[in-house]
Amino acid sequence: MRRMEKPPLENIPPKLQELLEDFAFVDRNERAQLLIEFADRFKDVEPRIASRPFPEENHVLRCESEAYVWAEDLPDGTLKLHFAVENPQGLSAKAWAVIMDTTLSGAPLEQVASVSPDVIFTLYGKDISMGKGQGLMGMLDHVTSAARRRLMANRGA
How many whole angstroms separate alpha carbon 16 and alpha carbon 18? Predict the structure, then answer.
């Protein structure tokens, strides 16, 4: 069994690091099954956060699955992530939404802001299509940008 390399990050959220380590030992078939299991856990954005039609500012432009991302401020200064994936066949986007929510929600903003897109290729494999990869990176961009905005606002406060 071939071990995949870890993403080049020192400040990675612990829950995400743990997941990356779990995925480092799986083959292609196991990886696909794990991602499907994550996608099956997807829950659409709660109506208290947003309702259709969703604001364009939350739309992930590069995502073929028509994903939307929201970052809710939590009392402890971290973020709770929320997602909508409009394409019912968007399993990769749904799985990535669940992964980001479970590993990045509640993590320190500095760690969330510094998550590298390399984690996508560690989780999904190097043979991910360009379109799918662009969409998943777009979802991550929304999340890391929200964390950076909060960090800048906190420094200015």
Answer: 5
pLDDT at 15 > cutoff 90:
yes
Whose tokens are 């662009």? That residue is 134
The answer as to whether 7 is a domain residue is: no
φ, ψ dihedrals at 89, nearest 5°: -90, 5
Q: Where are the beta strands (DSSP E) in 5-74?
A: 67-73
CATH number of the domain within which 100 lies: 3.90.1010.10
With contact defined as beta carbons under 8 Å apart, do 60 and 68 qualify? yes
Inter-residue contact 88 to 120 (CB < 8 Å): no
pLDDT of 9 reads: 47
Are the C-beta atoms of 63 and 20 separated by less than 8 Å?
Answer: no
Range of the domain at 132: 14-156
pLDDT at 3: 41
Kindly state the tokens that stand for 17.
């690091």
* Omega cis (within 30) before 14: no
